[in-house]
Design brief:
The chain is an alpha+beta fold. It is built from 10 helices and 20 strands. The two termini are 15 Å apart. Strands 5, 6, 7, 13, 14, 15, 16, 17 and 18 form a 9-stranded mixed β-sheet that branches. Strands 1, 2, 9, 10, 11, 12, 19 and 20 form an 8-stranded mixed β-sheet that branches.
């Protein structure tokens, strides 16, 4: 096979922010390397990237030394710079993490310590100081994190796509992958097109375990999709910036929070419930084969056993607007059910091991001529520039 027989050196499957950041990083690190991005939708960032709350996370929550901590702290600073350089709407707003119950105070204090270990400026606040930042928020204590911000991640993905110079093919749904150790990788899309490359990079998000298996690698995990349901506040003036509860360390979700977006609207959520399809943005979207795949994975049942109490609360909030409102009122008592307008949902691609462990950190694995990004939920958008560099480094090493 001569060079002409290859469509590109690196084939990236997935045109979300991580796939596009990888394409961008490859072109920066090794100019002249040809990158082809295959995205099944008609444009970039249609799933996790374009359906999250748009927060540039500080990195305060993550275990010191973990990829999430290192990449989020560095990624937040780089994301602000990238947005400024490429004219993407963004703002460094800061945020409050608020303890509303006495039992949360030790966890809040542990977050202060963790913030300091991760090199993040954190200010501790008493009840009166909380109201200087957020007049409508009530709490026993809070911390103010100055480096948190917001950005339009869909626009970031579009700029990364342009700046990468990659050959980006939309409407290219990968259905078959043929890998030969000595030659490279040939990918067939649903339209019958065949695309050849030397190395495959799998950034398929909600479909990443499927793509790994198509490649012939056992990912040793499954994606279990969790839908994040959001409301929008009809009275956005109740919140100035970003307000979060103290997260429960036993669960990877941050709890229902309030986020003032780039457009000035305030999003409330997400609630986290099992989705009945990989791209199940509503209860009405059910894909029996995907659901069967989730239910056949032993880890799914172990999560259900471990976390059924937490899950029951999330399901109650999904079914009842009043229950959802009650969760919000713990932070902002002035909110009533009439203030809550349903907004678009997102789905989080959560990697789960066979034993039911929810993969906590970003997970990148390599196979023959392949790099697989197998766990990149929040804060992956924040951390997308460093993640892209790390994935690009591994892909270039395989070349």
């Amino acid at each position: 096979m001569g060079t002409a027989a290859y469509d590109g050196d690196v084939l990236v499957v997935g045109g979300g922010i991580v796939g596009l950041s990888t394409a961008y990083a490859v072109s920066r690190a090794a100019p002249g390397t040809r990158v082809v991005v295959l995205e099944k939708e008609a444009g970039p960032a249609r799933h996790q990237t374009g359906r999250n709350s748009g927060v540039i996370h500080s990195g305060i929550y993550y275990r010191p030394g973990s990829l999430k901590a290192r990449f989020a702290v560095r990624g937040a600073a780089e994301m602000v710079k990238f947005c400024a350089e490429y004219g993407v709407p963004h703002q460094v707003t800061g945020k409050l993490i608020v303890a509303t119950g006495r039992d949360e105070l030790p966890r809040l204090h542990a977050l202060v310590q963790r913030g300091r270990e991760n090199g993040i400026p954190v200010r501790e606040l008493g009840p009166a100081q909380i109201q200087e930042y957020e007049p409508e928020v009530r709490g026993l204590a809070a911390i103010h994190v100055g480096t948190t911000g917001i950005a339009d991640y869909r626009a970031v993905a579009e700029r990364l796509a342009e700046a990468s110079g990659a050959d980006i093919r939309y409407g290219a749904d990968v259905v078959q992958i043929d890998r030969r150790a000595g030659l490279g990788v040939a990918v067939r899309t649903a339209s019958g097109e065949i695309v050849r490359g030397r190395v495959l990079v799998n950034c398929a998000g909600l479909q990443c375990d499927r793509v790994a298996r198509l490649t012939g690698d056992d990912p040793e995990m499954r994606i279990v999709p969790f839908r994040g349901e959001y409301f929008e506040l009809a009275r956005p003036e109740l919140v100035r910036g970003l307000v979060y509860p103290v997260p429960d360390p036993a669960f990877p979700f941050l709890g229902v929070h309030l986020t003032r977006g780039i457009d000035g609207g305030v999003h409330v959520g997400p609630n986290a419930v099992p989705a009945l399809a990989r791209e199940g943005y509503g209860w009405g979207v059910v894909r029996p084969r995907e659901l069967a795949g989730t239910l056949a994975w032993p880890g799914s049942w172990r999560i259900a056993r471990q976390h059924w109490r937490y899950g029951a609360g999330e399901l109650r909030r999904s079914a009842s607007k009043r229950a959802f409102t009650d969760a919000v009122r713990r932070l902002v008592p002035a909110v009533d059910p009439g203030d809550m307008v349903r907004a678009d949902a997102g789905v989080r691609a959560q990697a789960v091991l066979r034993d039911g462990t929810l993969v906590d950190d970003f997970l990148i694995r390599e196979g023959v001529r392949a790099v697989h990004v197998l766990n990149a939920p929040s804060p992956a958008a924040t951390a997308s520039l460093p993640i892209g560099r790390e994935v690009a480094r591994r892909a270039l090493a395989l070349l």
